Amino acid sequence: MRFLNIGVHLCVMTNRGFCKKKKKKVLFPGANYSKVHEETDQEGVFANSTHLLLQNEIHMSSTYYAIHNSAKATIIMNPSPLPSEEQIREFPWDRIHWLIVNEAEAEGLYHSIAEVSRPERKGLSTEELVFELSAQPALRDTNIICTLGSDGVLAFVPTFHRPKTAHEAPSFMRLPAARLMGDVKDTTGAGDCFTGYFVQGLMEYGPRGKVGEDILEHDIARILEICVYVGFCDLAFQNSELNCFMQAAGMCVEKPGTIDSIPIKAEVETRMLTTG
Question: How much is the pTM?
């Protein structure tokens, strides 16, 4: 058995703690950039995988290897940190089923894929930005989840939200952020917490769950609700799972640290009962 240092991820803080606009991240990849992923796939782990979660913290060649050897898997991509413009333009986005981004990442992807200058994004609302990103041929069939920090989350699922005619406006699924029971102590790991709970929610619908067949619009809402639960949502149906995922991310920032701050599902469900 081989034990390797997977890398070091430093978050630089001001003397007043974390500051969204001033926080800097320094990533030393270590073993994350080795070929250990390919070398240890002798039993075809990727080929037998049902869900593949990718983040841009391993070498791009390893990401490509995982995608090309996971033909039957539902692939979820969180491009963080954002790849270079060249890498973005060359990436097989049409292989991604679910794209999880924050607003800055969505803007960066749109800027690179659509090859437009950043000033052209000015004047676009978040909904318009996500819709324009989804309109790119490489992402036309990709479901997009855009996290908005204190403003919650926005989801665009083409099967349910893309206009059927040129005269229709696109629709979206949007929920506010979690109602916290304590102060924000550390936002590190909140995004990973959100993503992990989201993927776990997808896996509950089976190894081959398809959007529009096995997974319906209210199911997606039920998944995401776990992350940002606030006890109320202006949708026509009960969004229990959508809020649960958002609640989980909200609870994550109430504790310092990364892995230690991620709540177990039972804790999330208890919080939902007490705050709902």
Answer: 0.74
User: Which residues lie below 8 Å from residue 255, measured CB to CB, with a gap of 6+?
Assistant: 185, 186, 261
Average pLDDT over residues 52-64: 91
Distance of CA 178 to the CA centre of its chain: 16
The rounded distance, in Å, linking the Cα atoms of 3 and 21 is 36
Task: Assess whether pLDDT exceeds 50 at residue 223.
Answer: yes
For the chain, the structural domain boundaries read: 1-34, 46-147, 172-276
Query: Phi and psi at residue 214, in whole multiples of 5°?
Result: -85, -35
* Closest by CA position to 156, among listed 127, 186, 192: 127
CB 95 within 8 A of CB 101: no
Residue with tokens 């701050």: 261
Stretch (H or E) spanning 12: strand 8-12
CA pair distance 234, 1, nearest whole angstrom: 51
Nearest to 109 by CA among 141, 63, 77: 77
Task: Say if CB 92 and CB 137 are below 8 A apart.
Answer: no
Over residues 35-46, the pLDDT tens digits come to 766 777 666 778
